[in-house]
Every structure is written in structure tokens, then in C-alpha cells.
TrEMBL record:
Belongs to the ketopantoate reductase family. Pathway: Cofactor biosynthesis; (R)-pantothenate biosynthesis; (R)-pantoate from 3-methyl-2-oxobutanoate: step 2/2. The keyword Ribosomal protein does not apply. Gene3D superfamilies: N-(1-d-carboxylethyl)-l-norvaline Dehydrogenase, domain 2 (1.10.1040.10), NAD(P)-binding Rossmann-like Domain (3.40.50.720). Transmembrane segments: none annotated. It comes from the Bacteria. The keyword NADP applies. It comes from Ramlibacter alkalitolerans. This is 2-dehydropantoate 2-reductase. Signal peptide: none annotated.
């Protein structure tokens, strides 16, 4: 049976691992000790759009994995953890498994490609939320796209078929970048704004001043991506326009960055909007809205960290 390692079995990794568990031999690695233990002992419970309990082993560090080779390794840790997990997994890369990233943010595929293994890069509109040890909520059923960043379509078509069989609709693309750019711009705009409105999704769509900010940021991000030679397979703001016009209902999920702030975690701002700001500076493109929003999210991270620090909790 196909062996798949899922690195980061949180919101999205949890959905992928639990769904795949009936179709492949899945192993998880997750540094959240209580979560990993719960999964190994009682299984991972998916709630919401998918309801199932999947059983697979989950370790807390790559050093606990047995030497048997994996056919694919799926990276679903936050972008800031990718370099460290790759280093930890060095002993499992000699067999050249397919490395797949569906992470938001720039920089991950480049790190994976440096290993020399085939790399599938993609994006997913699936949404999830970590609830508690052993529990993940599947919030939105969404499409997934993957394609070669390093290697050929043949190296990864089988994995797309596996995701489809497991109930995660996936399209394989000859060149995934136009889709990656489209979703990247959506995340660069909507994720920080979702965090700044404290996860109250209606505020992203119904407050005129917030809508104007969203549109300005979208313009800035698209200008930078085009200056970098990128293009878009779909209008990054298409979903936003559909929600605004009432063509699709307002989802409850305000993006994963709002969830990070609610948990007092660091966000992926540096790999998203902050990345745009750095590129814009290099290219001489003014991006005042993205710059301000990036700064505000840094402040929000600081405040959320302070609010969740054990010292604050005990003195409260
Ligand atoms: N949530 C969503 O709806 C979506 C998320 N994404 C993207 O998917 C990626 C994962 O996000 P998400 O699932 O939300 O994140 P989560 O924080 O829910 O899950 C990541 C998991 O990885 C664990 N982890 C952190 N560092 C390591 C490490 N060094 N080794 C092993 N495990 C580690 C975390 O543990 P701990 O909590 O203890 O740090 C956590 O359990 C991100 O790039 C995100 O942008 C894409 C689409 C939608
Ligand atoms: C699922 C989606 C597209 C929703 O914004 C996302 O990428 C996120 O939450 O980070």
C-alpha cells in the first residue's frame, strides 16, 4: 500500500491525513504532543463538513519514524516551520519521495526543491480549524490543484488521483504557478484583513471602508506579481466579488490567520503580505496599504502572544 507521511496534522494536514487514511498507509508528524498522542491512541476525529474518525500513527518528531521509505511527504506545517521539518526529515529523503506543499505563502517549494526530490506545488481552497487534541473541524469543502515545481506530471498525477479517491477533489496542472499566484493574492489580502477584523467575516464584506481596503490591497498585490512575471489562472478576487454580490453565501471562516491570532500563534504574514512588501520595495512599487496592514498584523501578533502568555493568564 502507498505510504504517505503528513507533516503537520493540524487544520489542513488533519483533513488530508484523515481522508487519506482509508486509501493509503498514513503516518503523521506533529509537534503538538497532546494532539499527536490523542491521534495515535484514539484516532483523529473530523467534525463539520466531514464526520469521521481516522486511525493512523502520529509521532511528535521525525526521529521517531521508522526507516521504511514513504512514497509521498505532504507538508502542512505553517511556512515558518518548513526549513526545520525538512532538516529533521533528511534521513527519509534518500528514496526521493514525492514532496507536496499546499501551504499558503512563498518560499516553501523552493526549500523542498533543494532536496533534489520531485516537488508538487499547489493550492487548496479547503478550510479547516484545529479544535482540540485529536479533533479538527472541516470548515469548507474546496478544490485542490497540484502541479510540478520540480519533476514531471507523471511524478505526481498518482497523488492527485489518490486525493480524489479519498474525497478531496484535486486537479493536476502542467504548470501550477498561475493558480498558486491567484490563490496567493487572495490570501495576501483576505487573511490579514480577516485577522484585523477579529475573525468576524461579515466585516470583510459589509463594511465599505474595509471593502475599499481589500480592493486597494488586491490592486497592489497583483501589480507586484505581474512585475515579477507572474500571471493568474483566475481572478484572485473572484470569490470576494461573488460573496459581495450574494452569488455565494458568506462563509463563517475568516481565514487561517484569524485562527492563528485567536490561538495566540505567530501568523504567516511574512510569507504572504510581508513578502509582497519586500518584493515591492525591491521593484520600486509603492504598496502603502499592504505595508500598513503588514505592520498592523505584527502588532496584533504581539498583542495576541501577550494575551496568551502564561504570566498574563495567571495574573488575570
Ligand atoms: N487552515 C486553513 O483553512 C488553511 C490553511 N492553509 C495552509 O496550510 C498550512 C498549515 O496551516 P494550518 O493547518 O492552518 O495550521 P495548523 O497550525 O492548524 O497546523 C499545523 C500543525 O503543525 C504543527 N507543527 C508546527 N511545527 C511543527 C514541526 N516542526 N514539526 C511537526 N509539526 C509541527 C503544529 O503544532 P503546534 O500547533 O503545536 O505549533 C500544528 O499542529 C499553512 O501554510 C496554511 O496557510 C491552506 C488553506 C487553508
Ligand atoms: C481556505 C482559505 C482559502 C480561506 O481563506 C485559506 O487559504 C485560509 O484560510 O488560509
Amino acid at each position: 500500500m502507498t505510504r504517505v507521511l503528513v507533516v503537520g496534522v493540524g487544520a489542513i494536514g488533519g483533513i488530508v491525513a484523515a481522508k487519506l487514511a482509508g486509501y493509503a498507509q498514513v503516518v503523521g508528524v506533529d509537534s503538538n504532543v497532546a494532539h499527536a498522542r490523542c491521534i495515535s491512541e484514539h484516532g483523529l476525529e473530523l467534525q463539520g463538513a466531514t464526520r469521521l474518525r481516522a486511525h493512523f500513527p502520529c509521532v511528535t518528531h521525525a526521529s521517531e519514524l521508522i526507516a521504511q521509505p514513504f512514497d509521498a511527504i505532504v507538508f502542512l506545517v505553517k511556512s515558518r516551520a518548513t526549513a526545520q521539518v525538512l532538516q529533521d526529515l533528511a534521513g527519509h529523503l534518500a528514496s526521493r519521495p514525492l514532496l507536496l506543499t499546499l501551504q499558503n505563502g512563498m518560499g516553501n517549494a523552493e526549500l523542498l526543491a533543494a532536496t533534489g526530490a520531485p516537488v508538487a506545488r499547489g493550492a487548496t481552497m479547503t478550510a479547516g480549524r484545529y479544535v482540540a487534541p485529536g479533533q479538527v473541524e472541516h470548515l469548507i469543502r474546496g478544490n485542490t490543484w497540484i502541479g510540478p515545481w520540480q519533476g514531471s506530471l507523471a511524478d505526481m498525477r498518482w497523488f492527485s488521483d489518490l486525493l480524489c479517491a479519498a474525497g478531496l477533489p484535486c486537479e493536476v496542472l502542467e504548470d501550477p504557478m498561475d493558480t498558486v499566484w491567484s490563490k496567493f493574492v487572495f490570501n495576501c489580502v483576505m487573511n490579514p484583513v480577516g485577522a484585523l477584523v477579529a475573525g468576524h467575516n461579515a466585516a470583510r464584506y459589509e463594511v465599505p471602508e474595509v471593502c475599499a481596503l481589500v480592493d486597494t490591497m488586491a490592486e497592489e498585490c497583483q501589480q507586484v506579481v505581474r512585475a515579477l512575471g507572474g500571471s493568474f489562472s483566475f481572478d484572485p478576487m473572484a470569490f470576494v466579488h461573488k460573496v459581495r454580490s450574494g452569488a455565494v453565501p458568506l462563509p463563517r471562516h475568516a481565514g487561517s490567520m484569524a485562527l492563528d491570532i485567536a490561538r495566540g500563534e505567530e501568523t504567516e504574514i511574512d510569507a504572504l503580505t510581508g513578502w509582497i512588501v519586500v518584493q515591492a520595495e525591491r521593484l520600486g512599487i509603492p504598496v502603502p496599504a499592504c505595508r500598513t496592514v503588514t505592520a498592523l498584523v505584527k502588532g496584533l501578533e504581539y498583542a495576541a502572544r501577550e494575551r496568551h502568555s502564561p504570566a498574563k493568564e495567571s495574573s488575570a
